Amino acid sequence: PAGTGHGPRLPEHDRILQEIESTDTACVGPTLRSVYDDQPNAHQKFMEKLDACIRNHDREIEKMCNFHHQGFVDAITELLKVRADAEKLKVQVTDTNRRLQDAGKEVIAQTEEIIRCRVQQRNITTVVEKLQCILIPCVILIYLFDKLFYQLFIRKNLYLPRVSQYRFCQIMIENLPKLREEIKEISMSDLKDFLESIRKHSDRIGETAMKQAQQQKTFSTALQKQNNVNYGRNMHLGRNRILESKNEITLKRTFEDEDEHEEEVLTAQDLVDFSPVYRCLHIYSVLGDGEIFENYYRKQRRKQARLVLQPQSSMHETVEGYRRYFSQIVGFFVVEDHILHVTQGLVTRTYTDELWNMALSKIIAVLRTHSSYCNDPDLVLELKNLIVVFADTLQGYGFPVNRLFDLLFEIRDQYNETLLKKWSGLFRDIFEADNYSPIPVANEEEYRIVISKFPFQDPELDKQSFPKKLPMSQSVPQIYMQVKEFIYASLKFSESLHRSSTEIDDMLRKSTNLLLTRTLSSCLQNLIKKPHIGLTELVQIIINTTHLEQACKYLEDFISNITNISQLTVHTARLYGLATFKDARHAAEGEIYTKLNQKIDEFIQIADYDWTMSESDGRASGYLMDLINFLRSTFQVFTHLPGKVAQTACMSACQHLSMSLMQMLLDSELKQISMGAIQQFNLDVIQCELFASSEPVPGFQGDTLQLAFIDLRQLLDLFMVWDWSTYLADYGQATSKYLRVNPSTALTLLEKMKDSSKKNNIFAQFRKNDRDKQKLIETVVKQLRSLVNGMSQHT
After folding, report:
1. 397 close to 333: Cβ distance less than 8 angstroms
2. What single string gives the DSSP state of each residue in 449-461?
3. Pairing of strands 468-470, 439-441
4. Distance between CA atoms of 577 and 404, rounded to whole angstroms?
5. Phi, psi at 40, each rounded to 5°
6. Which pLDDT does position 700 carry in this prediction?
7. Residues 673/756, Cβ–Cβ less than 8 Å
């Protein structure tokens, strides 16, 4: 029975638990009531069942918590970390918000300012519209009143008598003289303002006019080129088609540039309002004071002309000073020309011509003075270009400018002088930098670079293989290129002078001649005279001048190609470069002879003979052997010189050596000479003769070079052989063995030996041979003296 009593209630308890778990809290009451409605012990069993269910759920919850515990711990850890970052972010957001608020204050202020400006702009627009509506009727009214008053003022004698009976007419008649003076004063004040305005704007007006003249000239030049192209098209249509296209494109671009400039360039009327002149002239003419106004205007303009023509003291320092000076003058005369053509009688052609002649004389005097201070050729060239534009501009307005072009010829001479000074420095720098040795060329490319700068031709050298050396030094092509650059620079000044090609050719040749004969020649002469220039350098200078002399014909061809003037023209000048380089070469040759002689003298000065030696050393002196070695090595360098130059140098050196040795023997300070010294001296002369016979320079015929020592040889032979009988017997005969021995020379040397013999042989008078020798010497001395006296009496 117990089993049957409890069995059915167990599922009921489960159902009740399910309802409690699944139903809403408000519906739990009826469910719980059903538990108490059953048997008394049912409540206890339900509680047990409920506890069991709770424990079951606790176990599930514990399992779930155990499963998610680690994740929960990690989440708490991350949350703690995020809290620190969240605090930083909060601080940054707060700071950003503060800065944004601060920045927004300025934006807000600007926005408010813009709002106020927009409001003001709207108000201004409204006011302008209202004023336009109001002013147009006012302007019309003022114009009508002015016109009416003007008519009454001008025609007072016509209209006022008709209404003279009215009171207002009497008032007008009384006020008209006062109004007339006021109008004259107002118009004169406007005129003064006008004169001040054109004085300020004259440079701008002149600059505008000069630009227009220069553009017109460019346009004319381009048009002339186009006409030449069109003319050539008919003759060489096929061959010149490409060239014509290029010229057409150039002309088109020129025209486009002209159009652009025409849009930008303003005229005098655009820059200055001439209405005050017209108005004042008209008022004074109506009032009968036109002549007074004309005299006043001309007087004021003459004063302004004097101010314009007065240059600044530093005008010559920059081209801008000249440009401003010319612009002011052009602006002045452009205004006068405009007044001349738009008014009647205020300015006449006679007046403007007189004013221009006065101004032209002043301009020429100023330019002549200030240009003389200029030493920069570039500045002189820019001045010339300004004068040309200045003259072309005023010529376009009808003013004669021939005297300005005559002045340009004076400035051209000064320009050439500045060029010559500049090129003199360039030549000096080139000579200073030159190493005075032949130009080495390692390959064909280097060779072509050199001959592209200098016209050098040598078939024999062309046959040689690389590397090889050109005979001239580096200065030769540089000098040649600088001469061509000088011609280009001189040509720049000749452009735009309205001169024919023949005249330009003549000017170029004259200036080039000045460069060659004066500047380059002076630089060469100074170079040759410099103490550091030795024999090797002098030899190279002679070679250089030879090649430069040969290149003069190419310079003439160069000028002819530039000017298109044939050299066969009768009036074509010739270049004087041949004479220039010949003179330089002759000076270098003379300097070679001088330096050789100086070097020989240096060796002679270190000679140390023992004139009392009893016998010779048996060999030549050391100083003389050094001298001969020096001469031998020097003459080897002379192989590149022209043959006659080397031969002359060699002959001059030998003659000078012979004369120096002779002077050494005959020196007045040398009192005694022994026979041993004569023998030693003879050995030295033999070495000189051997050197001469070795032909140190090729080209001498026979023993020509040895003849330089013939005087010494015959003199020494006479004393060495002691052949006085033959000398005295054959003296004066053409076949004499000692024909070159002068009696006075022999007497001087013999007296030196006589004194030496007396001093060294104190006891010689006790030996018969010595007594005989002394007697012979005295006899020869007497005979030589008689010959010398006879020669002096004969002369």
Report:
1. yes
2. HHHHHS----HHH
3. antiparallel
4. 33
5. -65, -35
6. 83
7. yes
Q: Pull the structure tokens for residue 116.
A: 């106020």
What does the pLDDT read at residue 6? 42
- Token pair for residue 12? 């009921």
Q: Provide the 3-class DSSP secondary structure of residue 313.
A: coil
For 702-757, the pLDDT digits (tens) are 788 888 999 999 999 998 888 888 888 888 888 888 898 988 988 888 888 876 55
Across 616-634, average pLDDT: 90
CA distance 299 to 302: 5
Is residue 429 within 8 A of residue 521, CB to CB? The reply is: no
Q: By three-state DSSP, how is residue 155 classified?
A: coil
The residue with greater pLDDT, 570 or 308, is 308
> What confidence score (pLDDT) does residue 249 get?
37
DSSP 732: T
DSSP-based three-state secondary structure for 609: coil
Residues 254 and 218 sit within 8 Å (Cβ to Cβ):
yes
Continuous segment of H or E residues that includes residue 301: helix 290-309
With residue 469 as reference, give the H or E element that holds it.
strand 468-470
For 23-45, what is the mean pLDDT?
Answer: 69
What is the identity of the amino acid at 144? L
Q: CA 477 to CA 710: how far, in whole Å? A: 46
Kindly give, in sequence order, each residue whose CB lies less than 8 Å from that of residue 268, ignoring residues fewer than 6 positions away. 205, 208, 209, 331, 334, 335, 338
Q: Residue-wise over 462-492: b if at least 16 C-beta within 10 A, else e?
A: eeeeeeeebbbbbbbbbbbebbbebbebbbe
Segment 48-54 long-range contacts (CB within 8 Å, at least 24 positions apart)? 49/10, 49/13, 49/14, 49/17, 50/17, 53/17
* Weakest-pLDDT range from 265-279, 371-385, 408-422, 689-703: 265-279
What distances in angstroms separate CA 224 from CA 237, 238, 247, 391, one per listed residue? 18, 21, 11, 21
The predicted pLDDT at position 241 comes to: 37
DSSP 468: E
Instruction: With beta carbons less than 8 A apart as the criterion, state whether 317 and 301 touch.
Output: no
- Give CA angle at 54 (53, 59), nearest 5°: 100
Q: State the number of CA atoms in the 13 A half-sphere of 225 facing the CB.
A: 17
User: What is the amino acid identity at position 152?
Assistant: L
The 3 state secondary structure assigned to 220-281 is: HHHHHHHHHHHHHHHHCCCCCHHHHHHHHHHHHHHHHHHHHHHHHCCCHHHHCCCHHHHHHH
Alpha-helical (H) ranges within 377-474 are: 377-396, 402-433, 444-453, 459-463
- Region for residue 307 given its phi and psi (left: phi exceeds 0; alpha: psi -120 to 50; beta: otherwise): alpha
* pTM exceeds 0.70: no
pLDDT tens, residue by residue, 313-345 = 778 778 888 889 888 898 888 888 888 888 887
More confident site: 17 or 583: 583
